[in-house]
Amino acid sequence: MNPETRMMRNKLVAIIDDDVLFAERLAALLGGLGLQTVIVGGGLELISVLSIDRPHFLLIDTMLNWINPYELIDSIRKNSELRDIKVFLMTQQKDFERTCDRYPDILCIYKPSESSLLVEKLREEIVKNESA
């Protein structure tokens, strides 16, 4: 097993998306790279994942029908125990750039077309955190 795969094996990625098919495909892609994944489809599950599982990364869809993703991000940032979780935003919206301007430190990707960019950025974050 190469060092990168070994580093990735210990990382948990929470996929917060109500598009089940996309979430499952993304989980399979990330799982194939050695990352652990959990798909979050509701509020109680989100609370459990954040408080018990403590993921390293959150991949949050901007079009969730059960929670406002921007309020979720703001709440995570206000919580001293959660603010170190790296957040990525995913969307199919056309005017996504305005949303990204609100969060300049968050990677914003178009789904599903930029999944390879997401994988690249996750790898970079893992390597950066492991060498810090």
Account of the protein in words:
This protein is an alpha/beta fold. The chain has six helices and five strands, in the order H-E-H-E-H-E-H-E-H-E-H. Helices cover 49% and strands 19% of the residues. Helix 2 links the parallel strand 1 and strand 2. It has a single domain, classed as Rossmann fold, CATH 3.40.50.2300. The longest helix is centred in the last third of the chain and has 17 residues. The relative contact order is 0.17. It has a five-stranded parallel β-sheet, sandwiched between helices.
Q: What structural class results from the helix and strand content?
A: alpha/beta
Strand order of the largest sheet: 2-1-3-4-5
The CATH architecture: 3-Layer(aba) Sandwich
CATH class: Alpha Beta
Order of helices and strands: HEHEHEHEHEH
Helical residue percent band: 40-55%
The end-to-end span amounts to 22 Å
Radius of gyration: 14 Å
Overall pLDDT score: 88
Spatial shape:
globular
Q: What composes the largest sheet? A: 5 strands, parallel
Oligomer: single chain
In CATH terms, the superfamily is Response regulator
Unreliably modeled segments: none
